[in-house]
Amino acid sequence: MKGELDSVDLAILRELQNDARLPNKDLAARVGVAPSTALERVRGLRARGIITGFRAEVDVSELGRPLHALLALRVRPHTSQLVEPLRAFVLGLPETIALFHTAGPDDFLVHVAVPDADHLHRLVLEKFLVRQEIFHLQTTLIFRTEHQPIQRPAT
C-alpha cells in the first residue's frame, strides 16, 4: 500500500466515492476537518496515487448497449509478442467495457456491452475468432451487474 491511511483519509475516500463532485467545504464538514485540511488531504491522496481520477458513471444500456457478456479467451502461444497486440486490439473495440488478464485456464476475460445477440454473435465470429492467437473462446451472458460502490483498504 502507498503509505498508511488514517481515519480522515478513509473518511475522505468514502465521501468522494459516494459523490466525486462534492464541494471541498462540504467534504470538510462531513469528515470533520477544516476546508484547507480536506483540500491538502485530497491533493496528497492524488499525489500518492490512491485517488486516480474522478469519473462519471455511464449506463451503457441507455446508450443502446443493454446486452452484457464476458468473453473468456485462451491464447497460444502466451507470449508478450502476442499478448500486447491482443490487449491493444481488445481495448480498441467500442464494445469493450473492461479487460482482465487472468491466471487459470483462461488468459483473458473481456467484458463487452452490445446492442443485441446478433451484434454479440458478429463480434465473436468476425472480430475475435478470426485472430489466430485465440484458440478458445467461451461466451457468458451477464444478467445483472452489481458494484461495491466504496472501496476499503484490506484489513
From TrEMBL:
Species for this entry: Nonomuraea jiangxiensis
GO terms for cellular component: cytosol
Name under which the protein is recorded: DNA-binding transcriptional regulator, Lrp family
Superkingdom as given in the UniProt entry: Bacteria
Gene3D superfamilies for this protein: 3.30.70.920, Winged helix-like DNA-binding domain superfamily/Winged helix DNA-binding domain
Pfam families linked: AsnC_trans_reg, HTH_AsnC-type
Residue ranges of domain HTH asnC-type in the record: 5-66
Single GO biological process annotation from the record: response to amino acid
Any GO molecular function: sequence-specific DNA binding
InterPro entries from the UniProt entry: AsnC-type_HTH_dom (IPR000485), Dimeric_a/b-barrel (IPR011008), Tscrpt_reg_AsnC-like (IPR019888), Tscrpt_reg_AsnC/Lrp_C (IPR019887), WH-like_DNA-bd_sf (IPR036388), WH_DNA-bd_sf (IPR036390)
Keywords for the protein's UniProt record, in alphabetical order: DNA-binding, Transcription, Transcription regulation
